Amino acid sequence: MRAGALGFVAGLAALLAAPVSAQLSDAEEVMVETVADGFEDDVALLERITLINSGSHNHAGVKAVAEVLAPEFAALGFDVEWIDQSAQGRAGHLFARHEGVPGTTKMLLIGHLDTVFEPGSPFTGFVREGDRAVGPGVVDDKGGIVVILAALRAMQAAGTLEGANIVVALTGDEEDAGEPLEAARRDLVEAGKWADVALGYEGLSVLDGKDAGVIARRSSGSWTLTTRAGSGHSSGIFSDHAGYGAIYEMARILDAFRRELPEENLTYNVGFMAGGTPAELGEDGLSATTSGKTNIIPSHAIARGDLRALTGEQNERVAGKMRAIVAQHLPGTEATIAIEFRYPPMAPTAGNAALLDRLNAINADLGREAMQPYPPSRRGAADISFVAPYTVGLAGMGPAGSGSHAEGESIDLRSIVRQAQRSAILISRLAREPSPQ
Fold first, then answer.
1. Is the Cα torsion angle 136, 55, 51, 43 positive or negative in sign?
2. Where is the Peptidase M20 dimerisation domain (predicted)?
3. Shared-domain flag, residues 336 and 396
4. Are 24 and 366 in contact (CB under 8 A)?
5. Which stretch of DSSP H or E encloses residue 46?
6. 84 vs 141: CA distance, rounded Å
């Protein structure tokens, strides 16, 4: 966390601690009604952008979605910018900036234009059945973008948008970030350093059938484990001269991970592995090839997996334990592990919890149940994590749905309404308050 950020977060937590009002104001009533009245138009926009394939590697498709959305933000008085990312191997990001009253709360709204479904995916179209719709990226994250726009339109209708300081950051590569990662996320991080509050518009979390708030998300990293050994006739396995072979060394390490690493909010999946004479990782890093015989001691083994933790400290500590396990070689073997941290965690903070309290004050004013914090072990990484060290935030501000990243992904269309209403009121209330920076 940057210098002075701890004091800033503490100050903002205090600022957020008390609700501004005990009931909906006239302007807030207008926002509630405007969102409800705009429902069918919002669904139509969602259908329009869902029908455009915007897989992370479909650069033309990602930009085509941005070209649909840019006029929507411009009509609300935002300055719109396309940030080219071709040098990072991706299409680009769409940023929209609105300058309000100086010295008031600065807010960053985060979503993404891309999906996991590339042009060759058989999952296409937009199928609506009442208040449910199915389509690629319909909830992750095109529905989230629609929630942002619905909230901003409601604010404009109520007269609360004019004074608000807002940056909307829609990345074009959230599902598969460009390289180098530092360059791919530079603009987002700069916006996070500017902001007092960040809101992430990926899907709404539901806990025991009730809407929940996301004040923390885990990191996403990967590891590659390679073991090597001298080869020879299998009759010598376990002997002093032949050793144990690369596969037994791999098995030792992975089993030690299973037994020795478990702790709360930590997972470390093994995605794939191969062993033999030889075994080689594919150029894409997502496959491996091997061959061998039953009577030959294997010379190589390779495995790749992920690592997810709740805090940076947990990441580093667990990585240290993994390296120590790897270093305890079986006789006649060698092993190395490479660990890469990509998406950082969004650790739970007092400021994040206070922001959820503010949202729950709005829920009370709307006559809705309070949203409990969602267990971070159930949420993956997201772009909001890149700005978490610099500002307070809430994630999961997008619509409810199911089946993200899989054929049949669906959205509860009515959840757009309640999420946009919550957002419009929260952003409007915060926009009236002084920036703690």
1. positive
2. 215-333
3. no
4. yes
5. helix 39-50
6. 20
User: Is residue 380 classed exposed, middle or buried when 0-12, 13-18 and 19+ CB atoms within 10 A define those classes?
Assistant: middle
How many CB atoms lie under 10 A from the CB of residue 261? 15
- Averaged over 199-223, what is the pLDDT? 95
What does the chain come to in residues?
Answer: 437
Residue 437 in domain:
no
Which residues are CB-neighbours of 368 under 8 A, at least 6 positions away?
211, 418
123 and 11 in a single domain? The answer is yes
Q: Whole domain around residue 311: which residue ranges?
A: 220-343
| CA-based nearest residue to 208, from 50, 371, 423, 26 | 371
- pTM of the entire predicted model: 0.90
What's the domain count of the chain?
A: 2
Is residue 397 within 8 Å of 205, Cβ to Cβ? Answer: no
Confidence of residue 18 (pLDDT cuts 50, 70, 90): very low
What is the pLDDT confidence band of residue 284, given thresholds at 50, 70 and 90? Answer: confident
DSSP string, 376-402: GGG----GGGGTTTTSEEEB--S--EE
Whole-angstrom Cα distance, residue 157 to residue 159? 6
Indicate whether 372 belongs to any domain.
yes
Q: Does pLDDT of 3 surpass 60?
A: no
User: Which two structure tokens, joined as six digits, stand for 68?
Assistant: 């649909």
Which amino acid, one-letter code, is at 230?
Answer: G
Output the pLDDT for position 20: 44
**285 and 413 inside one domain:** no
Tokens of 388: 């978490």
